[in-house]
Amino acid sequence: MTRGWRRGGRIALPAAVVLILAGSLGMQAALAGVSDQRTAGTTTDRPAPGNTLISTQGYNDNGELIEVSPAGDIAWRFDPPDSRVFDAEVLDDGNVLVSVATLRDPAACPEWTLDAKPGQCVENRVLELDYSTREPVWSYAWYDVYARNHEVHDADRLDDGTTAIVDMGNDRAMIVNRAGETVWEWRADEHLSPGTDFYQEYGGDPNPGGEADWTHINDIDRLENGNFQLSVRNFDSVIEVDPETKAVVRVIGRPGNHGFLYEQHNPDRLEGPGTVLIADSENDRTIEYDTDTGETVWEYGGDGLLTWPRDADRLPDGNTLITDSQRNRVIEVSSAGRVVWEYRGVPFAYSADRVGVPEDATGLPSGRTLDSRTATDPLTGTARTLASYARFVLPAWVGIPELANALLLLVSGGWLLVALRRARALG
After folding, report:
1. Which end of the chain is more exposed for a tag (fewer CB within 10 A), N or C?
2. Spatial contact of 207 and 171, defined as CB atoms under 8 Å apart
3. Which of 70-74, 290-294, 312-316, 373-377 has the weakest average pLDDT?
4. Are 236 and 251 in contact (CB under 8 A)?
5. Where do runs of H (alpha helix) occur along 68-226?
6. Which residues contact 142 (CB under 8 A, 6 or more apart)?
7. Of 148, 38, 59, whose CA–CA distance to 390 is shortest?
8. Range 245-251 average pLDDT
9. Distances (CA, A) of 407 to 155, 197, 379
10. What is the C-alpha to C-alpha distance for residues 170 and 210, in angstroms, rounded to an integer?
């Protein structure tokens, strides 16, 4: 009897731990099912008026574009199947310009894409949608190999009716006309590689060739002076390019200087105050720099406030609209750092625009810096990043606590199996 009691005791403890952890994980799933629902909220501070256009990359090629009212009601939706949806904007005529990367079956893929990655390819599309019908009235498309790091992230309609596009997979920026002809092109290998003026002064990774994710150019904007501003994410730099000479005439940031910028997204030049507002993604912050001096003008983030933001727009009243990507939400922040509006439940949000407001609106915060906003510590930041990317293969409700619980459950399950085997061995 003593031997049986000991055998049962060896099994009871790990079994109890497994039951507790399994129950805890089930409770987390149940509560997350409620908290992950799409909700909107405001504080006593007044958010800027208007609906918000939000694009989502999604976690399993289920991205979409939605227009949300201040109360959180979905007023409009575009949800292409098997797609990741990136930057979007409402044009002056009411149509919607959106960048979409769609996963295609092998039968629809060019042979050269399958040589590099058998089984699938990605079709990058820039679509101009009729707002009422959601049908394309204009499009420009090309195929690429990978549905990750080769997607089209941004396209902007220019005043002359042409469209500026960044082609991440081919490390280039281009302008196409209504007939789909390329009328201007800028290639990173001609201006950022070893031997170029940029590389001699700033350095950076040399082009490895092939299908590698070298520059990860994720944004293009035409500035008031006619130059183009490009966000070169993997170089931790925002560059300004003269369209005539194609020379890099201004650099904000420096490859490897992660204290200044670290794999940023969607910089917006605020011409009035002479600043640039940037979603400084890997530093978990939104930051505004003086473009001439490099001094910090305004900052929001760190201290657990943001996790991998990828878009920040200044609104006319001085508030800032931010996509907090790895927390699946969009927030509007006052110049004093108070969240005045929030919309949750958007899977891997990419961009957000307040409808009717230009992206380069110049509001009040310039010259007002928040206090004690520091970058998230590396360990916490890494944990949040892993939790976010786990959602590509795990349910969307899985976060850091859920991952920790699941890991402990796996370890405890192994402990229980070992205890059962030993118990059987003892007879």
Report:
1. N
2. yes
3. 373-377
4. no
5. 111-116, 197-202
6. 123, 124, 167
7. 59
8. 98
9. 41, 49, 17
10. 10
Helix axes 400-426, 378-390, angle to 10 degrees: 80
Q: What is the Cα 214 distance to its own chain's centre?
A: 18
- The total of structural domains in the chain comes to 3
Kindly state whether residues 253 and 332 are assigned to the same domain.
no
Q: Please give the residue range of the domain that contains residue 21.
A: 2-29+402-426
39, 46 contact by CB (below 8 A): no
Question: Do 194 and 162 reside in the same domain of the chain?
Answer: yes
Q: What's the whole-number average pLDDT of the chain? A: 87
Q: Are residues 231 and 281 in the same domain?
A: no
CB-based contact 201:254 (threshold 8 Å): no
> Both tokens of residue 313?
């727009």
CB 285 within 8 A of CB 299: yes
Strand partners for 296: 289
Instruction: Looking at the structure, tell me whether residues 103 and 252 fall in a common domain.
Output: yes
Residue range 338-386, pLDDT digits in tens: 999 999 999 999 999 999 887 655 555 444 444 334 445 556 656 655 6
Residues 269 and 134 in one domain: no
In a domain, residue 36? The reply is: no
Are 213 and 357 part of one and the same domain?
no
Burial of 93 (0-12, 13-18, 19+ CB in 10 A): exposed
